[in-house]
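Weekly sync notes, structure subgroup
Attendees: PM, AL, DS (notes)

Item 1: joint prediction request from the bench team. They want all two components modeled as one assembly rather than separately. Inputs as received:
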Amino acid sequence: MRYLPHTKEDIEQMLAKTGEPSIAALFDCIPEKLKTNQELNLPKPMTEWELNEHMDEIASSINASKKCKYFIGAGSYDHFRPASVNYLISRSEFATAYTPYQPEVSQGTLQGIYEFQTMITELTGMDVATASHYDGGTALAEALLIALRKGKSKKVAVSSLIHPHHKEIIKAYLKPSGYELIEIPYNKNGVTDFSKIDDMGDIAGIAVQSPNFFGNIENLSHVKEICESKKVLFIASFTEALSLGLLKSPGECGADLVAGEGQSLGLPKSFGGPGLGLLAGTKKQMRNLPGRLIGKTFDTEGKKGYVLTLATREQHIRREKASSNICSNNGLNAMMCAMYLSSVGKTGIRELAQLNHDKAFFLKTQLETIGFKFPFNSEFFNEFVGIAPKAFRAKREALKTKGIYAGINLEKYYPDLKDHYLFCATETIKKQDIEKLVQEVK
Amino acid sequence: MKEIQELNLPEDLKYAKSHEWAKKTGDAVKIGLNDYAQDQLGEIVFVEMPEVGDSFSQGDEFGNVESVKAVSEIYIPVSGEIIAVNEDLEDSPESVNDSCYDKGWIVEVKLSDPSEFDSLLDKESYLETLKG
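Output from the run, pasted for the record:
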């Protein structure tokens, strides 16, 4: 699908054919009071070199320079993107955000999405994956809607350690529908506390993020046992997809649905988005999944082909029965993710994940030498919470001018957690970077 | 599509206006779609069924069938608890077309009110509703 702008001649031809005097005349049906007659307040056009300079200035003003060192994850991770990904994704054939509207003529796009789905099912340990969603938060909200619309209760229970932004998205999704969200508290180990789950009444599903917002790894097999005993859907979520390279997959732990953010898998951070919503399910959930599923088949001559296998019919002919009416996906980003996973490979992703954990572990031991305390005695992947010495707050601000970002303050999201900072180290952080950070903070 | 006189509607079954059939053995009632319904729907590709242990009241929607032409709800002719579902339909939904009274049964319920079964239509009364 290409973007081909209309030339002046094209427009004149179309107007001649339709008999409209001008493009403006096409909008005559819109009442005058709704139209603006002012010039839009937009900056003047720039040459390409002026534009490049302008964008560079903006990038340096928000400290998005490549020279900066980020000890921050919290849902958006600084990972290396192989050159192959940017090269391949620049090809014009891939330049579309959508699952095509006349899908079967776009065999290349369909094959790309099919490969993406296959890799996501392998990574999550699930039977089927969708063609992708906007981001992890909306994918998770969609998963909860499946539980609510197919289940017997109007309530879902969500771990308090799901990313705070995802919680906001879920609330925005559920509120107009009259569904209720209850939060499951966390315990002294910084993992979800299920001890009072039976007091929460009837629920349609339980959603838990692992690694959770504190970076700690949740015991998903235990969550499975609880969901099984309550006969509710088990939804596993994640914001750091790379952790799947090392951890037991949510599928192996018995999740019914897996919803997470795929930014770590080949996408730039792009000032917070667009991301990549991953959603996968067991075979049983296949027909409840929103969006699109691409499948492989053979034509009457036995030749391989790719088709839009499932788009729940409810979206077209029974909208009132639909578990979701979302049809869009993030095609370009899904493609980027597939290219990344193919570049990294099966052993590569494991090695990369191990490297992330090793770097984060080293960061933790180094912070300990300068007076940091660690409140949670849990396993972590590449993020962890540290309690900082009193002087850290001011030093952290000063470090920003040097392009070093030392964790995020958790108090904003969890008011009880004063002086608690969430740190992250990915493969892009060198040993020297960690030593420099420690030197500066000491 | 079949003419009304071509429909296969066994005498020993009861029928609901919404085109399900019901067959009683003791207090268990087997339920499926009748010949008229399967014929109207065309080639059936998926049957969504409830779970064993679910309870429904007479007339409740308890699942749906998807054919190449349409998706239709299926309604329970008698109140009760689901004691069995036809799991073979997961792999062979076409049984609802090929063998609607035998291999194509959908669920079995434990009847909670026998009078509901007695009030269902016999073949002749059901045929009247089709003609109406």
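Discussion: Residues 14-114 of chain B form a domain with the OB fold (Dihydrolipoamide Acetyltransferase, E2P) fold (CATH 2.40.50.100).
Action: AL to compare against the crosslinking data before next sync.
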